[in-house]
Amino acid sequence: MIACKFLWIIPALLLISLKAQAQETYQYAQRDTCALYLDIYRPADGAPTSFEGHRKPVILFLFGGGFISGSRDAGYFMHWFDILKENGYTVVSIDYRLGMKGVKVKHSLPGLYKASKDFYNAQQIGVEDVFSAVSYLWENSDALGIDASNMVVSGSSAGAIIALASVYDIACGRTKGLPAGFRFKGAMSFAGAIVSIDGAPDWRTEPSPLFLAHGTADKAVAYKSLGAFSRGIWGSSYIAGQMQKKGWDCCILRMNGRTHDVAAYMAELWPQEKEFLEKNVMQGIGRSLDASVDDPSLPSWGEISLGTIYK
């Protein structure tokens, strides 16, 4: 869950960029509290849209912001979007409802335990919005020129939590609002986790291939797990362990000593993402990777914790 103060720690070069204008914007849902929109970014002219005979998937992206802030078209995502476009990928960046906005969180174990249901509800309304966006793209695929059957869901921080929960719910048969038989081709999570109020996540069937990047010193979204009794948050390390026990596709980058900075490492980790997309997703190779990454050249923008997010 990335802080609303996240903009303060983005490098100045990216901060000065204005919000990029999406090539196309559509309203995909109307809620009681707001309308929800999505932006479509098409591949760059001449960019290859297939790899070894396989069509490249659409990248469905969810921004971060601690479920209290954030924007689908924030300027600091645009460098990564440009990388994807130049490599022949279509990007769809979507709104979702901010379920923790206005919710008070006490920074004690009892306070966090009490707030866990609020976090869970925020996660699940995000999943509902993802499923609505998928349904909209599916129903309008011809008009939009989008292959909605070939999508990878991705997210940063709170968006990564929603992305992983979406894949988890599909694996558990909770698919209300989705086209029959739909499943993502893969998921990419940057500092994500799964929130549960009913014990540790229990995957009923094999999920889509997972790409997980997480800082081992993350104090905002648990790298391993955090909670009490049946309520808590289960992070990338826990999820990867479950995938490994079952022999399911999962690539995890354990960013040693890194904090919640990893939520903004989409562009920095492009080579590893590219390999995941080409091998695990497009070629369907049953491939697992568990790598510890020590790279002093990666940017650092300061430490974020739950206390700095929910004051």
Could you walk me through the main structural features you see in this protein, from its secondary elements to its overall organization?
This protein is of the alpha/beta class. The chain has one domain (4-309): Alpha/Beta hydrolase fold, catalytic domain (Rossmann fold), CATH 3.40.50. 29% of the residues lie in helices and 22% in strands. It has helices at 12-15, 78-86, 109-139, 141-144, 158-171, 236-246, 270-282, 306-309; strands at 24-30, 35-41, 50-51, 54-55, 58-62, 91-94, 151-156, 186-190, 193-196, 210-215, 225-228, 231-235, 250-255, 289-293. It has a nine-stranded mixed beta sheet, sandwiched between helices. Strands 9-12-11 form a three-stranded antiparallel beta sheet. Helix 3 (109-139) crosses helix 5. The longest helix has 31 residues, at 109-139.
What is the global morphology? globular
Question: Which class best fits the helix and strand makeup?
Answer: alpha/beta
Largest sheet: 9 strands, mixed
Q: Helix fraction?
A: 25-40%
Low-confidence stretches: 1-20
Strand order of the largest sheet: 1-2-6-5-7-8-10-13-14
CATH topology: Rossmann fold
CATH architecture: 3-Layer(aba) Sandwich
Distance between the termini: 14 Å
Q: Rg from C-alpha positions?
A: 18 Å
CATH homologous superfamily assignment: Alpha/Beta hydrolase fold, catalytic domain
The total tally of domains equals 1
